[in-house]
Structures are given as C-alpha cells and as structure tokens.
Write a structure and sequence with these properties.
single chain, 298 residues
Length: 298
C-alpha cells in the first residue's frame, strides 16, 4: 500500500493544518487547535458526507480535559477579580490599596491560566506522519518549541501575565514620582497588553491557517479567541488612558482606564466560560488492571 499524500497549511514557517489523502480514499485532517483542545483528528472516508472525529487515547483525553478545566476557571476567576478591582477603583469603595490587592489576586489567576494554557500545548497528543495519533507522551512541565505556532502563542500569553505581575507588584510602591510611576507601573502594563495582543493575533493565525484574521461564526474556538482578543484591546485602551502626565501627575483619563479594565476583564471571564465547552468528550473508562497507553487510529 502506498504512502498517503500530504497537504500542508499554515502561515510562514508555521504549520497549523495537515491533510492526508490515503490511497484507499480516506482523508485525515490534523488541525492544531482541534488536536490540542479536543484531542481529535477529522476523518472522512469514501462516501461519507461529513467528517467524523478520531480521538486520541483515553489517557490523553482525560489529561486535556483536566487542563482545560483548570485554565478556563483560572481565566474566569482572574477576569472577575480584575473587574472587581476596576469597580472598586472607579466607585471609590474603600482604600486604594484594596483595589491593588484585588488586582494582584486576579493577576495570580491570570498567571495560572497562562501557564496551564502552555501545558495544554506541551501535553497534547502528537500526530504520526501517516495521519494517526501517537501514544500518549510522558507528562512535561516545560518545553521549548518556538517553531510551533500554538506554543508561541501560549508562551507569549504566559510571559504577558508575568509582565502584568511586575505592574501589579509595583503598584504597591508608595511615594513615587510621576516619572517613576510611568516607568515602574505604566510601562509594564503597556508591555503586558502588547504581549496579550500578539498572543491573540497568533491564535487567530492558528485558527485561520493564514497570516490575517478570519470570521468563523460556527467555530467555538474562533469565538474564544475573538472574545479574549477584544478583552486585550480594551486592556490596551485602559493602559493608554492610565498614563500619568509629566506636567500634572494626573492620568490621561481615569474613567476610561477603569471602565476599559472592567469591560476587558469581563471579556476574559466570558472567554473562560466559552473555553469550558471547547474540550474533549469524556474519555472512556480504562479496563481494570490495564495501564497500557492507547493508540487511536482513524
């Protein structure tokens, strides 16, 4: 039997979709986001009118499902806390330090969500050259794979959450001059927002298989990316409005800064809720006494 023909799609050096046309007439599609979020390949046999999913083994699906729950809940809670911090700052409910502490707690959840998103990439099932899933790989806490677009997108997101952490820690400093505020608090804020925007654009490239965004209203993954990117845009608007004028020390616009933060944070919470549903189906139970890793074949 001959080797399957392969078609490669993506942007630049990045591959985001592979299609194998097998000699027997079966078509198998590996989609980067579908594989790492749902743990499936798409298969269409001769005479089929729709694609059918071909899942990875139960161990891989269970792993992806758990990671998805942790990442989703982290972004839901982190976004809610950021929205609460913005509301406290806007309506003056309590000491300004209260808002800073709420933001800081929210930032920890964003850190968690960013890191677990990276773990989703590192521990997703891999495909074999002939268009089948390999067995479940060993668990990894870290990996360096810059030529994978999904890794690059989630890595930039994670770094963005860490930079936000610098901004949130520096916000506790007292007695700063206007120049110090802009350098220690505002600059990390803008850099973090920029990294979020870059990560969101790379996520669009992964889903659209081309360098520019697309519109795919029937794709849940597209809506997750779009809602989160909208939140990133609002965060950037908030950061620009929070610049302190050197002459007066006042912010460009306090109301815009607070309301944009609140709306952007709620966008990330909504994105987290949507992500809860972008998950593998429940993994079938393994037979008792067996620990062999399962190889799923279309």
């Amino acid at each position: 039997m001959g080797q399957p023909e392969q078609r490669v799609e993506g942007a630049g050096p990045f591959t985001t979709r592979l299609t194998w046309e097998r000699p027997e007439g079966e078509r198998v599609v590996w989609d980067s986001r579908l594989a790492r979020r749902r743990g499936t390949l798409s298969v269409r046999g001769p005479g089929d009118t729709v694609d059918r999913p071909s899942p990875a083994g139960p161990e891989a699906l269970l792993r992806l499902r758990r990671l998805n729950v942790v990442a989703s809940c982290a972004f839901i809670i982190g976004g809610a806390l950021f929205a609460l911090g913005a509301a406290i700052a806007q309506f003056g409910a309590g000491d300004p330090l209260l808002s800073a502490w709420v933001y800081f707690a929210g930032g920890l959840f964003f850190n968690t969500g960013g890191y677990v998103s990276l773990l989703q990439v590192l521990n997703a099932p891999r495909h074999a050259p002939e268009g089948r899933f390999l067995g479940t790989a060993d668990w990894r806490w870290w990996g360096y794979e810059p030529m994978r677009l999904d890794w690059l997108s989630t890595f930039v997101l994670f770094v963005g959450t860490l930079v936000f952490g610098v901004n949130l820690l520096d916000s506790f400093l007292q007695g700063l001059t206007t120049q110090q505020v802009n350098r220690l608090i505002w600059t990390p804020d803008v850099i973090g927002c920029l990294l979020f925007l870059i990560s969101g654009h790379l996520a669009f490239v992964e889903i659209c298989h081309r360098p520019w965004p697309c519109f795919r209203s029937r794709s849940l993954g597209w809506w997750v990316v779009a809602v989160n990117q909208f939140g990133s845009v609002l965060f950037m608007v908030s950061a620009l409005a929070a610049f302190s004028r050197p002459a007066t020390g006042s912010l460009v616009n306090v109301d815009i800064a607070n309301w944009a933060t609140l709306a952007g944070a709620l966008s990330f919470s909504i994105g987290g809720v949507l992500q809860l549903y972008e998950r593998p189906q429940a993994a079938p139970a393994r037979p008792a006494g067996r620990r062999a890793r399962t190889r799923a074949a279309p």
